[in-house]
Amino acid sequence: MSTIEIKNLTFTYPGAKQATLNHVSVQIEEGDFLAIVGNNGCGKSTLCKTLNGLIPHFITGDMEGEVLVGDLNTKESEIGTLAKKVGYVYQDFENQIVCPNVLEEASYACLNYAMEDYKEKGRKSLIACGLEKKMNDYVWQLSGGQKHLLALAGVAALSPDVLILDEPIAQLDPAHAGTIYNTLKELNEKYHKTIIVIEHHTEYIAEYCKHVLLLKDGSVAWKLPAKEAMRQVKELEECNIFPPQVTIAANQMVSDGLLPKDITLPVDVEEGKTVFQRFLRKKIQNRPISGYQAKGKKLVEFQNVTVKYRSVKGESPKIFDHFHLEIKEGEKIALIGSNGAGKSTMLKLMMGLIHPEEGRVEVDGKLTRDMSKEELGRTISMVYQNPEEMFIKDSIRGDIEYAMKVRNIPEYEKRTDELLEMFRLTELADRDGRLLSGGQMRRASLAIGIALNPKMLLLDEPTANLDIATRREIMKTLQMLKGITDTVVIATHDMQLVCDWAERIIVLSGGYVIADGTKETVFADMYVRQQVGIKPPEIYEMGRELGIINPCFTIPDFIDYFRGDSVCIN
User: Fold this and answer.
1) Helix/strand/coil percent split, the chain, to 5
2) Is the confidence at residue 209, as pLDDT, over 70?
3) Cis bond upstream, residue 56 (ω within 30)
4) Cβ contacts of residue 208 below 8 Å, gap of 6+?
5) Average pLDDT of 311-327?
6) Minimal CA–CA distance to 380: which of 441, 462, 460?
7) Among the residues of 27-172, which ranges form H helices?
């Protein structure tokens, strides 16, 4: 096992005006489960890349100080030696996967080191990561969550003392997110691995991690036990990190005089139940939950749609099987479901990027297979999950005006200026979109998406890989679309986005719609939640645990139950 000791570490990227890491000194004990938190650009990933030798051996810059992993100095050790000590699963984990077969991929690193029992090590690693039934599958047969576990298995096969994961659940549905963290917990507790995660989802930090390290402006602000760290509400929020919802609610209630000042802030639902149940003040009064009823004109229709993907071996998997659905003008729809449920496929069908083997997909009364890409592009626009894929020019202005310019749309320059101003991009107009921050890229991709005034906008995971503050900024941007593009469909795993924004929720599972309605009806259906692995916002679960019948989707809704008067409690 290896204790990690970082001594007075400073690192500056080539050409940077200031250091990314500034005199960092910290010790990480062997067997710890540590979360590293901080706002975008504070140096989290940079710090982790010094632990496995990527910095300074592959990523150059000015490095001062020492990083010791056990008895190895990372500056003096070979990268191959360090890889046996420190495994790293990157945020873009799919780029780590190089073999077509699952067992081959899990064994690859050990084969690279000429270990005679490389296949056995790969098998054991797959078992530890819960992929024993997938050993003989091809990688492309796996879901997103399973691929993430495979990347982890490939790293863990070398039996490193330390495992680092950068944003381990950023693109995963709640069920797969829980699987990842339960696997990490087992590796930590059963196999005694030191686990380090870069994480924004504080509810997972509170549940699984032992300690939290806060980086602020490239320096260590503090390292604290996880639950104590989550109670530092003010300091976390100043760094755009938002503690668990129950913690934020309790902290606000203390400020409002609804809870005693000396109370210990809860950090999870179990602690919240103990704290909150004594202070509920509202009387029982159940209100009926109304259903959702769309009123607009039909814009998209799926009729008896069947879609299969080709398979190298075995039967071709069906993504949709005699699928039916209607979308009407003016709807704000959240499309949810587990990884591999068909959300992205549904978006591609509407865009005409793929066509069904059976059935019909109609957009604005016309079959998509009979419409040209230009005609579909004027009706529907799609913003991709990775916004950098939207940028083809060397400036934001060039990217926004491109589609209008090639179609000879009059006054496209004026329209471009209006969009730049609307999305707060005027000062960034001449910047390359690929070099912007996450939030800036998302705003720019939305501006590109609505440049042609489409009737309908499709968004694939618009808040993935973003910290909480940037996700809130994207929410504000979505509200700005009202009156411009009123029909919006978002495929997402972000349940807070679903609750804050969507009017209609469509739940996909196994090629079918298993739920279609309001957030109140969908989250109240326990069968649907278990089938798809939906995890409502923590404040919703907190309300349910306290016996509140009408769901609380926001913190203000929840706090309202402690102010007196009437409403509903079971």
Assistant:
1) 40, 20, 40
2) yes
3) yes
4) 33, 181, 184, 185
5) 79
6) 460
7) 44-51, 54-57, 79-85, 102-112, 118-128, 144-156
120 pLDDT more than 80: yes
Q: Show the beta-strand stretches assigned E in 107-255.
A: 162-166, 194-198, 211-216, 219-225
CA distances from 30 to 62, 85, 154, 199 (A): 28, 12, 21, 20
pLDDT of amino acid 37: 94
Work out the average pLDDT over 262-280.
91
Which position has the higher pLDDT, 119 or 435?
119
The pair phi, psi for residue 391, each rounded to 5°, is -100, 115
Instruction: Give me the chain's average pLDDT, please.
Output: 88
User: How large a percentage of the chain has pLDDT more than 70?
Assistant: 93
Q: Residue type for 366, please?
A: K
Phi first, then psi: what are they for 88, rounded to 5°? -135, 120
Lowest mean pLDDT among 3-12, 40-49, 121-130, 306-315: 306-315
- Least Cα distance to 21 among 55, 54, 68, 72 occurs for 55
Residue 268: name the closest of 236, 246, 252 by CA: 246
Query: Residue 271 belongs to what H/E stretch?
Result: helix 269-276
Cβ contacts of 269-278, under 8 Å, gap ≥ 24: 269/538, 269/541, 269/542, 269/545, 271/246, 272/246, 272/542, 272/545, 273/542, 273/545, 273/546, 275/250, 276/250, 276/542, 276/546, 276/562, 277/546
Q: Does the pLDDT value for residue 508 go beyond 70?
A: yes
**DSSP 3-state of 9:** strand
Residue 65 carries which side chain, given as an amino acid letter? G
CA distances from 461 to 495, 498, 506 (A): 11, 11, 15
| Residue 143, number of CB atoms within 10 A of its CB | 16
DSSP class per residue in 99-113: -SBHHHHHHHHHHHT
**Angle separating helix axes 412-422 and 438-449, nearest 10 degrees:** 140
For the chain, helix (H) and strand (E) counts, in that order, are 23, 20
